[in-house]
Design a protein that fits this description.
Blueprint: E1 13-20, E2 25-30, E3 35-40, E4 47-53, E5 56-60, H1 63-70, E6 80-82, E7 88-95, H2 109-116, H3 126-134, E8 148-150, E9 173-179, E10 183-189, E11 205-211
Antiparallel strand pairs: 1-11, 2-10, 3-9, 3-11, 4-5, 4-8, 4-10, 6-7, 7-9
InterPro entries: DUF1989, UAAP2
Organism: Mycolicibacterium grossiae
Protein name: Urea carboxylase
């Protein structure tokens, strides 16, 4: 898929079409009924994501509630991402990859140094991206919650250990999320270079918001 190709999975009026640079943060409010398509432009890029009800950011995505309600840990078409109140925030309505992570969390300076050594401390992580971008919406460290890792492959071993391995995505693969309420979406286009979640080479992704026709 080229950068000029129409990337949205769900047809409709294009409300927003932006490219998120490698390693960069991004945010927007996706209005109820609109569809956010995330495009893995070069393949094997992890996209960390936080979700909040736009009119009350105390209502935010809960991995525990989402996993318990759907009875599985991975996200794909039909998955409803819920707040800890049980309220639906977004629903995955189309998916070209099939598995998206709910358990791996977000990298940070602290986790990088613990896992990979003090020489990585200068490398900012997704937590730093979330703090930078969240500040634009009045959010601070206490407002951060569990996150989704779109396109990231985190298998669970029989002993319960989590692995971080090469992704299942490929160039141009997409996932589409319908906002069930006005939803504030924060993204960290993951800057991690110490494990294979990004093939050790962070790359850009594209985000497109469409407003489906009433007939569709």
């Amino acid at each position: 898929m080229t950068a000029t190709a129409v990337p949205a999975l769900i047809a409709g009026e294009t409300v927003l079409d932006e490219t998120i640079a490698a390693r960069a943060p991004w945010s927007a409010v996706v209005r109820a009924g609109d569809v956010l398509t995330i495009v893995d432009l070069d393949g094997n890029q992890a996209v960390d994501c936080l979700l909040y009800a736009a009119d009350d950011t105390a209502v935010r995505y809960s991995a525990a509630e989402t996993i318990a309600r759907q009875g599985r840990i991975a996200l794909t078409t039909g998955s409803v991402l819920r707040a800890d109140t049980g309220a639906a925030l977004v629903t995955v309505i189309a998916d070209e990859v099939g598995v998206h992570d709910t358990l791996g969390g977000a990298c940070s300076k602290e986790s990088n140094t613990l896992r990979y050594g003090q020489h990585t401390r200068a490398q900012h992580g997704c937590m730093e991206n979330f703090l930078i971008e969240g500040a634009r919406w009045g959010l601070g460290a206490r407002d951060l919650s569990s996150n989704v890792n779109w396109f990231m492959n985190v298998p669970v071993d029989p002993d319960g250990a989590l692995g971080i391995v090469d992704g299942l995505s490929g160039p141009g693969k997409r996932v589409a999320l319908r906002a069930d309420v006005d939803t504030l979406v924060l993204i960290s286009n993951c800057p991690q270079i110490n494990n294979p979640c990004n093939a050790f080479n962070p790359t850009p992704v594209r985000v497109v918001v469409t407003r489906p026709d009433a007939a569709s």
